[in-house]
Protein: Membrane protein
Organism: Clostridium punense
Amino acid sequence: MDLLHFLDLFFNHSFIGLLLLILGIVYKLFPPKNVNSFYGFRTGKSQKSKEVWDKANIYCAKKIIEIGIFLTILGAINLIVLPNMYSLFSIITVGPLLIWVIVKTDKHIS
């Protein structure tokens, strides 16, 4: 297997993780400045004050980056174990992991 083919397979297997990693970094670098209903970690608890809003969004960005790293590594493992099943484990785990971020962030700001 040549390097280009390997990189193509790695990207296919780790796409969701890499996407979340990039989004988490962008979210961390450009957090929402004010409480709003468009961009940011928006729950009833997080929108109660600017202080809670900032705390929730900083924490959420950190957790999204962690999930991105985890899913990228999981995708690489998936590439070795099941090379023909693109992102199988990433697709199965992304929903529960994002729900975990919401629950964990909500607990963090409580």
